[in-house]
């Protein structure tokens, strides 16, 4: 800037009063004081919907107003920030104060679940770049899910999740087991193609899902795990290996790591995708791995 005073970059405090048990707003007040004591200039973004929040954030990123983003919420809230970073092709460091129900991303990166400890970690300033994914323009910070399990998750509302916790997914699964059909899908990129009947397909950016380590050693890329048909004996086998962190040793699964893939239903069938716990687009979808894309504050 010439002639005038150089505009000082600000810290965006982005929070979601719907996340977890609804404490994010209260946490935000305390975090604002802590950040201001350290000399940060705080701005907030007040929006009503996810779509509005993405557009608002994108605008701030384009104007290069932000020194950092402090995000208070779970994976769904962090996904809004990451999606705006993807749209704006921007690199602004992101600090996470976990206030969700599961907080998978925070557990993976050992970000303290206690807000004061999380803000101290951000203030220490240690950063690293982490891998995320992208599906038709939406970021994937932790996971993408489609198939019967994803559809039954669509039946679970945030209100029920806050009241009953994760048990609502188990209840919904029991209600639907046997009712839903698998979908015949084509997975392809420039070097591979696979046609499979899929009951459920999970893609993750790390070896964590639902706050637990479910995979051991993995190679570069998004980690894909598919259940091709669902019977109760398969479910038990799958559960055993998932709980012991060895999901890929289960004989009932197809799994691989991939950097880019297009997924299309073979017939005209509506298959919706869930990303980081929120309802996402329908297939077909182009899914890409974005290595070292997002800068976060870590221990
Ligand atoms: N600024 C916002 N405006 C509207 N909706 C938002 C906003 N921020 C987040 N949301 C939505 O609120 C819902 C809950 O958020 P979030 O996923 O962070 O919490 P959670 O579900 O309790 O946590 P977790 O994903 O870790 O289980 C999500 O559907 C998310 O998209």
TrEMBL record:
GO terms for molecular function: ATP binding; kinase activity. Keywords: ATP-binding, Nucleotide-binding. InterPro entries: ATP-NAD_kinase_N, Diacylglycerol_kinase_cat_dom, Lipid_Phosphate_FormReg, NAD/diacylglycerol_kinase_sf. The keyword Nucleotide-binding applies. The keyword ATP-binding applies. Pfam families: DAGK_cat. PANTHER family: SPHINGOSINE KINASE (PTHR12358), SPHINGOSINE KINASE RELATED PROTEIN (PTHR12358:SF54). Belongs to the diacylglycerol/lipid kinase family. This is DAGKc domain-containing protein. It comes from Liquorilactobacillus satsumensis DSM 16230 = JCM 12392.
């Amino acid at each position: 800037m010439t002639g005038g005073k150089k505009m000082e970059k600000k810290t965006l405090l982005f929070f979601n009063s719907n996340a977890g048990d609804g404490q994010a707003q209260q946490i935000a007040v305390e975090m604002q004081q802590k950040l201001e004591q350290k000399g940060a200039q705080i701005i907030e973004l007040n929006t009503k919907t996810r779509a509005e929040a993405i557009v608002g954030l994108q605008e701030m990123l384009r104007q290069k107003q932000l020194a950092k983003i402090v995000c208070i919420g779970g994976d769904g809230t962090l996904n809004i920030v990451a999606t705006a970073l993807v749209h704006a092709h921007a690199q602004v460091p992101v600090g996470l104060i976990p206030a969700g129900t599961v907080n998978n991303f925070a557990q993976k990166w050992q970000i303290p679940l206690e807000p004061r400890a999380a803000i101290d970690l951000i203030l220490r300033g240690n950063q690293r770049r982490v891998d995320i994914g992208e599906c038709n323009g939406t970021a994937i910070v932790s996971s993408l899910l489609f198939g019967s399990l994803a559809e039954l998750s669509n039946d679970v509302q945030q209100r029920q999740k806050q009241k009953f916790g994760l048990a609502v997914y188990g209840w919904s699964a029991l209600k639907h087991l046997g009712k839903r059909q698998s979908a015949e899908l084509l997975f392809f990129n420039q070097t591979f193609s696979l046609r499979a009947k899929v009951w459920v397909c999970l893609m993750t950016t790390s070896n964590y899902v639902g706050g637990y380590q479910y995979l051991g050693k993995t190679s570069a890329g998004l980690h894909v795990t598919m259940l091709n048909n669902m019977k109760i004996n398969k479910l038990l086998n799958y559960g055993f290996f998932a709980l012991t962190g060895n999901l890929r040793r289960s004989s009932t699964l197809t799994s691989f790591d991939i950097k880019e893939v297009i997924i299309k239903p073979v017939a005209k069938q509506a298959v919706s995708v869930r990303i980081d716990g929120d309802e996402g687009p329908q297939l077909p979808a182009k899914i890409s791995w974005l290595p070292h894309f997002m800068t976060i504050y870590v221990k």
